[in-house]
Design brief:
CATH topology of the largest domain: Immunoglobulin-like
Strand content: over 45%
Order of helices and strands: HEEEEEEEEEEE
Shape: elongated
Helix content: 10-25%
Length: about 160
């Protein structure tokens, strides 16, 4: 008798959960950014993100080999979490850097961290620096999942140690 009740409950649970999952795809939801209805589908919205800039010394000369890391701040259950993005890039011979990736489509609260990790190579040793660039939408959404393109520019002057 007990196994029969368990059998019925399992099948009932599958039927209910299946119905809930399929019914969530059939109706539209209100897009808070645009105030219009969009179709609710499975997946994740994204935005294309571009961060670029230059790193120079006090004399205005470009610095090669500076590590550029993006640090994002967010919260989970009301507790702040600070973490580094998986992407770390280095400046080229002209002191420039470019990071392009897809991110969650909210304007991120990010900090760009600049560190000289090669010692005296490429012009000497430099103190680390941090910058909070303004992130702006450069292009609006082109579909239900693509929320557009965001850009930020972070140019910095590093001081010698």
């Amino acid at each position: 008798m007990k196994s029969r009740i368990v059998f019925i409950w399992k099948h009932l649970a599958v039927a209910i959960l299946g119905a809930l999952g399929f019914s969530s795809c059939g109706e539209g939801v209100l897009d808070p950014d645009k105030g219009q209805e969009i179709l609710a589908m499975y997946g994740s919205p994204y935005a294309d993100f571009k961060l670029l800039g230059t790193v120079k010394d006090e004399a205005g000369e470009p610095i090669e080999g500076i590590r550029v890391a993006v640090r994002r701040e967010w919260s989970r259950a009301g507790n702040p979490i600070i973490g580094y993005e998986a992407d770390t890039i280095f400046t080229d011979s002209k002191g420039g850097y470019l990071l392009e990736k897809r991110i969650w489509p909210t304007v991120p609260d990010l900090t760009v961290v600049f560190e000289d990790i090669d010692g005296v190579e490429h012009g000497g040793e430099f103190k680390p620096a941090e910058l909070k660039p303004d992130v702006k939408y450069a292009e609006e959404s082109t579909g239900p999942w693509n929320r557009g393109r965001m850009e930020a520019q972070a140019d910095v002057v590093l001081n010698k140690k």
